[in-house]
Known about the structure:
Layout: H1 4-20, H2 22-46, E1 52-57, H3 63-73, E2 79-84, H4 85-94, E3 100-102, E4 112-115, H5 124-137, E5 145-146, H6 155-185, H7 188-192, H8 199-205, H9 207-229, H10 233-260, H11 264-281, H12 293-300, H13 303-315, H14 325-346
Parallel strand pairs: 1-2, 1-3, 4-5
Antiparallel strand pairs: 3-4
Helix pairs in contact: 1-8, 1-9, 2-6, 3-5, 6-9, 6-10, 6-11, 6-13, 9-10, 10-13, 10-14, 13-14
Amino acid sequence: MFNAQAFCQLALVNWRELLRDFKMIIYIFVPPLLLMLVFPFIAFLMNEEDGLIILLLPADATQAVHALAAELQGLQNVTFELVDAGEGMRRKASGEFEALVFLPSTIDGGSVVIETPAGSDVRVRAIKLALEEAARAAGIRALSVSDSGDFFADPLRYGMVGALVYALASLGLFGVAMPIIAMRQQGILRLMRTTPVTRLTFVLAQVPARLILGMALTLCALLAAWALWDVTLPQLAAALGTSVLGFWMSAAFGYLVGGRLTVPEVTFLVGSPALSLGCTAGSVLFPLVDWPEWVHTVGRLMPLTYWADALRQNLGMGGPALSPLWLDLTVMLAVTLAVTLLAVGLFQWDTPEQAYSGKRPSA
Length: 363
């Protein structure tokens, strides 16, 4: 059964102990922050100047489309030449172009179409980034783009969301499992077993302190997204809710690992490869565009796949969705509930050496 008074007391003790343990906070926050610095560097290396791009503006284009075309022509890293539809089709027939960008008549009534000839050095990714930047400057919230390319994602936005998932997963797994194992080694859990505290109460009492730290990190990342990429408040609220659910899911795995293992070092030996595999095969840190199909199959079995995909859909960044949002959230909730119940059922208070054998101690 759940004991509310014991829950409050244990949660307060956990918070005080976590504040004293600066080493744990460093282990949790420093690696993800360093990881986040990698993606701006990658985006900077990929932000090279491209050649001349032909921009086709239809005669019946609306004011919003004209504003988009003006913003595109004002960009510094990509050069656009604005022509009418007739001149654009002439150049397409003659092959005198590196890339053609067909603007729709209305923003809501069509898609921007990108065409590149064989052998062109112009990168479609750079054009899409330019369209995204110009759309934001013109006040256009959503711009549909169609091309012959495959998966597209801005490495900075994709990686920043992945780094946040990695940070929260690390906090939930190691930040929960390690203290539980330490308390078991010290015999604290053995003494706690003699009190009215149930396993469910003890497990739930580990949540508040870690959740506060995790949500503080999440709020910092979301505020940065709001400042840099014009993310709306409803999107931030949805992403915060998804982060809470994802943290609960990773913490459930932390309870499961901490409830069974007796040596802290084994937690890293087991948890680090599992977390790395989940982030890699699950397309968390980077999209697996040209990888074999069996890798994508393995990724669908990773809960982190659905967590990262849901966050990118909440924030409207990171390329096409891997699954519908409802499916992402359903899988996360189902895994969370299943692992939580499993962790409570398999939780051990004692180590095998501490377990009572039924024999009297020798004099």
